[in-house]
Amino acid sequence: MPFSIDPARGLAAAGVLAAYAGLCAGVWRRERRRQAARRGSGGAGAGLLVAYASQTGFAEELAGEALAVFTAAGLAAEICPLGEVDRQRLLRSRQVLFIVATAGEGDPPDNALQFARSLLGQRLPLGDLHYGLLALGDSDYRQFCGFGRLLGRWLEACGATPLFAPIEVDRAAPAALASWRQQLAHLAGTADVPDWQAPAFADWQLLARRQLNPGSTGAPLFHLEFAPAGGQPLPDWQAGDLAQVLAPGDPSRPRDYSLASIPGDGRVHLLVRLQRDADGRSGIASGWLCEQLVPGQCAALRLRPHRNFRLGDNAGRPLILIGSGSGMAGLRAHLRARAAAGDGRNWLIFGERNAATDFLYRDEIAAWQQADLIVRADFAFSRDQSEKIYVQDCLLRAADSLRDWVAGGAAIYVCGSARGMGAAVDAAMTTIFGAEQRAVLLGEGRYRRDIY
How far is CA 403 from CA 320, 345, 392, 433, 434, in A? Predict the structure, then answer.
């Protein structure tokens, strides 16, 4: 018969459920330890695997939290990007936690593409696998948690058993994350998950703000400069990282912005486009940053590592930097880092509306070109001619040169909107290099994207 709780005795019933859940978790934990002991430490299938698919780094942060919880509980666990989970590793595994974001309109993040391409089209015998699924998404997109839901359907079709109902998180919603952490506590056999804190928000003072595209037919773009308030030391970061800002009008879903500067600049630079809705009202976060926040006032801000878009092993390679609009922020940070290192093996491909009003950081780019810190630059100002020209058109026209640069070891970095430029550039990449080589570049980390 179905189980129900009498509201009049809800607290008592809830206590019974909590005790029962704790008992089950303890049994499950002890059984896992016995299995691990029988298999031997580090043996195939030993412990629990935490596999993450992350585009901006949030899923990776949550995976690190999960690993810390299990390690603190004395349980064997390991962590890896989903793209490193192959058929044999999955068949050997007995418990897996999947923490997966969705990129764009339902796509897997870059570090999950290999998994999606090689395994999701197969029907694997996963009857011995128990799994938990945390899907991260943004309800502003039509395919909310699209990749997470696809992964969940595939696991179910393969016969895997869920440890709990899949949990979906809309833009880091606290209630959904609390449910996830409660499940972690049960699986680890602890009373609660230790309070895991991302870097704390701190007060950063707005020092300067200026519009970069006055007179543009497009939405205004503003350059903003921040420094820690009260003379606090500047934290460290790398080109490719992100800043999170809490807007007073919406203190529960922080906004991510690509950093447009490097620590050597002494300030955090952001490039923010002022968003307006159909009624002409300014966006909650962008309106506050671009119109309401007064220089001298403070914003709650913190820096986040974005390992998928850092240079990492590509620091010694030539770079092809591709973007449009506010995507110039991430490209500028990399160019400033390269200029500081004296490495001029850089090719910039950038698009906007009109050269007269939308040539972002024109003087800075010209100075880099003159100093041979940008050896090639192609610009797509779409409204400067009768036929609209976009970044992807520049790529297709320069296909032979792109192939030559990549053959010479270059890495490709793309920054900008996923809905427009990002998807079109990715399609051009497939046309130019072929699906197989594109996949190789992604797998090697030589094709990296910061798209939003």
Answer: 11, 15, 15, 7, 11
With residue 435 as reference, give the H or E element that holds it: helix 423-444
Token readout for 391 is: 């970044």
Instruction: Kindly report the backbone phi and psi dihedral angles of residue 195, in degrees, each rounded to the nearest multiple of 5, phi listed first.
Output: -65, 100
Which of 119-123, 137-141, 179-183 is least confident? 137-141
Handedness of CA 184, 188, 192, 193 (dihedral sign): negative
Answer yes or no: are the C-beta atoms of 327 and 421 closer than 8 Å: yes
Residues linked to residue 299 through DSSP beta bridges, in sequence order: 204
13 Cα distance to chain centroid: 40
Query: Is 451:416 a contact under the CB 8 Å cutoff?
Result: yes
Convert the pLDDT of each residue in 312-332 to its tens digit. Answer: 999 999 999 999 999 999 999
pLDDT band at 46 (very low <50, low <70, confident <90, very high): low
Whether residue 32 contacts residue 70, with contact meaning beta carbons closer than 8 Å, is answered with no
Amino acid at 423: A
CA–CA distance, 5 with 11 (Å, rounded to integer): 9
pLDDT digits 0-9 by tens, 144-162: 999 999 999 999 999 999 9
**Strand stretches in 262-409, DSSP E:** 268-273, 298-304, 319-324, 346-352, 376-381
The CA distance from 86 to 6, in Å, is: 47
CB–CB of 78/50 below 8 Å? yes
Provide the b/e sequence for 192-226 (b: ≥16 CB within 10 Å): ebeeeeeeeebebbbeebeebbeebeeebbbbbbb
- 40 is written with which tokens? 């031997």
Identify the CA nearest to 392 among candidates 449, 356, 432, 438: 432
